[in-house]
Amino acid sequence: MKKLRINFSTTQMIMLSFLTAILAGSALLSLPVSSADGKSVPYLDALFTATTSICVTGLVTLPVYSTWSIFGQIIILIMIQVGGLGIVTILSGILISFNRRLGLKDRILVQDAFNLNSLSGIVKFLKRVLAGTFIVEGFGALLYMTVFIPEYGWKGIWISIFNSISAFCNAGIDIMSDNSLCSYACSPMVNLATSLMVIAGGIGYVVWWDVIRISKLFPKKKLRSFSSLSLHSKLALTSTAVLLAAGTVGYFIFEYNNPQTIKDMSFFDKLQVSFFQSMTTRTAGFASVPQQDLTNASSILSLFLMFIGGSPVGTAGGVKTVTMAVLLSSAMAAIKNKDEVSLFRRRISRQAISKAVAVVTVSFMIMFISTILLSAVTDAKTIDVAYETVSATATVGLTRNLTPALNRWGKIIIIVTMYLGRVGPISLLIAFNVKKKKNNIIKDPVENISIG
Predict the structure, then answer these.
(1) Percentage of the chain surpassing pLDDT 90?
(2) Phi, psi at residue 60, to the nearest 5°?
(3) Tens digit of pLDDT for each residue in 406-447?
(4) R_g (Cα) of the chain, nearest Å
C-alpha cells in the first residue's frame, strides 16, 4: 500500500511555518503560567498576541507589561525574534550550528524566504545574518541600559534586551507601560537607540553587506562609496533617507501648533519627536505621542508611510521602499513615453516592475478588504479603522487606541490581516520568482485597450 505524500512548495512551507509558530505560541500563552495573575488568558487574546508577535506587528489587545508573566514575556520575545528573522532562518541556523549540511531543498527554501537571486553563498549569508543580528541587538540593549537600569534597577536589563530585540525586528512591543514610549518622547538616548535598531533592521541585510564591502575597499582603492554600491542598496538608502526627511518635515509642520502633541515642546524636542514619528511609521510600531491625538494631515501622512514600510530582505513590513521606487519610476517612464525604466543609470527589468505592481496591488487589496470588514463590525471612525488595517497589513503596530476596544470579530479580522500582511507579499514575491519555462505554444493575440 502506497503512502500518501504531500509535496509542499517553498511558498506553502513558509506560510505553514508562520501558521504553525502562531498556533504553538498561542497555546503557550493560553497557559496559566504565562499570565501575570496565574489565570488563563482568553484564547482569542492569546492567539492575537501570538500573531502580532510572530508577524512582528505590535498591535495588542491586552497590555503586555501587566498581562503576561516573565514566562509569557519570554515566549513573546522568542516569537518576535523568530518572526523577525523568519522560521526558516532560525531552523537553518540551528542545523548549521550542529555542523549539518544544508541540502538543496533547504538552500532553495532560504533563497525564497529572503527573495535572493542566487543560491551561491547561502550558508555564509545565513551565518552573517544571525551574527549581525545578535551583535546589533546587543549593542542596542547596551544603549537602552543607560536609561532603564538607573530607572528600573536590575529589571532594566530585561527591559533593555526586550526593547532592543523588539525594535530591531520592527515589532513595536514593549514591557514598560500601556502608552508605548510616550513617557520617553523627549529622551535623546531612547530615541537614538530605538531609531538605530529600527533602521538597522528595516534597511535590509543586503544593504549591510554592501556598505561593509565598500567601507573595506574605500581606503585601498579610489572608489566613490555611494556610486560603488549595488542598485538595490542605492534605492534602499536613498528611499529611506528621503522618506525619513520628508516625514520629519511633514510631522513638524502639521503638529507644530497641536497642543496635544508637540506644541509646548522645545524646538529640539519637536524635531526629535517628529523624526521618531517618521521613523516609527516605517513598520516599527513604537509611539512617542498618542496616535489618536495627531492632526488629520499627520494621520494621512502616517497611512502613506506605513503602507510603504521598510526595505527588502530585512525585518520590516510594508510593500517596501525599493518596490515603491521601481513603481514610481515606471510611472514616470510611462508619462514621459519611455520604453525602458532606468534608475541610477541602470535599467530595471520588466520582471522587477511586474513584481512591484503585484506586491502593491495585493497589499492594497488586503488593506481595502480588511477596512471594509472591520468597518462592518465596529462603529469606530473611518480614520481609526483605516489606521488599524493599514497598520496590520504593513505589520506596523501603531493604533489610534482601537485595538483594545475590538470585539471578537474585529480581533479575528485583524489577526487574519496581520498574517496575510506578513506572508502575503513574501509569498507573492516567491511566486513571481519562478523562472519562465520555454514553450512553443501559440501566444494570445494582442489587442489595444484604453488606459487612464
Answers:
(1) 57
(2) -135, 140
(3) 999 999 999 999 999 888 755 655 555 544 445 555 666 766
(4) 22
Neighbours of 74 (CB within 10 A): 15
In a domain, 443, yes or no: no
As separate numbers, helices (DSSP H) first and strands (DSSP E) second, the chain gives 17, 2
Q: What is the enclosing helix (H) or strand (E) of 366?
A: helix 350-377
pLDDT, residue 387, reads 96
- Phi and psi torsions of 35, nearest 5°: -95, 145
The single residue listed with the C-alpha cell 520582471 is 351
Q: Considering the domain boundaries, does residue 5 fall inside one?
A: no
Residue 28 reports pLDDT greater than 90: yes
pLDDT tens digit sequence for 97-150: 656 666 666 666 666 556 665 566 677 778 888 888 899 999 999 999 999 999
Counted domains in the chain: 1
Give the integer Cα–Cα distance in Å for 10 and 262: 47
**Position 414 in a domain:** yes
Tell me how long the chain is: 452
The helix, strand and coil proportions of the chain, stated in percent and rounded to the nearest 5, come to: 65, 0, 35
pLDDT of residue 5 exceeding 70, the answer is no
Amino acid letter, residue 17: S
The parent domain of residue 232 ranges over 10-431
Quote the cell numbers at residue 55: 508577524
Which pLDDT score is estimated for 1? 45
Q: What is the pLDDT of residues 203-214, one digit of tens each?
A: 888 888 888 877
pLDDT band at 317 (very low <50, low <70, confident <90, very high): confident
Element (H, E) at 200: helix 188-203
Contact of 232 with 322, CB cutoff 8 Å: yes
State the Cα–Cα distance between residues 253 and 245, nearest whole angstrom.
12
Q: 289, 277 in Cβ contact below 8 A?
A: yes
In a domain, residue 120? The reply is yes
Closest CA to 185 of 246, 263, 302: 263
Task: Name residue 224's amino acid.
Answer: R
Contact (CB, 8 A) for 276 and 195: yes
Residue 85 sits at φ, ψ, to 5 deg, of: -80, -30
